[in-house]
Prior knowledge:
The protein is mainly alpha-helical. The protein has two domains: 1-35; 45-94, no CATH class. Helices cover 89% and strands 0% of the residues. Helix 3 runs antiparallel to helix 4 (67-93). The longest helix is centred in the first third of the chain and has 34 residues, at 2-35. It is rod-shaped. The two termini are 44 Å apart.
Amino acid sequence: MEDIAKIENELEQARQDLHQTMTEVNQKVEDVGTRLQPESILKRNPVAAACAAGALGYLAGSRGERIPILAALILGGFVAVVFKGSRETNSGTQ
């Protein structure tokens, strides 16, 4: 009988631990989802967004052979700035 009670207690503790873990995971998923929304990215990185938009607008209006290369560089730089800021924000909250 003591073994059954012990197993039931361990099972209940495992359920509580699982519930707590799932709650934490859901919160982190919501936080990441919020940070990855375009509005949130633009609010956190207005200068980088404005520079990227201006550069892409310039590239769209210009004619030349290097446009795809420059566009890729600009887009890559913007993505790097956004994810660097996201990692800094994430490490600051933990």
